[in-house]
Amino acid sequence: MVTALVLLNIERQQIKLISQQLVDMQEVSEVYSVAGRYDLVAIVRVKNNQQIADTITVKFGELNGITATETLIAFNTFSRHDLEHMFSIGE
Fold this sequence. Notes:
Layout: E1 2-10, H1 15-23, E2 28-33, E3 40-46, H2 49-59, E4 66-73, H3 80-87
Antiparallel strand pairs: 1-3, 1-4, 2-3
Protein name: Lrp/AsnC family transcriptional regulator
Organism: SAR324 cluster bacterium
Pfam families: AsnC_trans_reg
């Protein structure tokens, strides 16, 4: 599985609509509204890099209101749940 974090700039009046359209996509597991330089962060989880490219260039590209994106490909995933599971002894 390949995970990408897609940072998005959105036209202000379109943020709620774009958020819903993104989360309705099978490839998008989560969408966060954030403060700072970007308006939204979408978490994309797919089988391979080509699917990331297709999702961002084609599917995201079809949505009116996205003004810019920046994509970060995750090399590894670390979470509290994973770390606790690794260090638990017979719990």
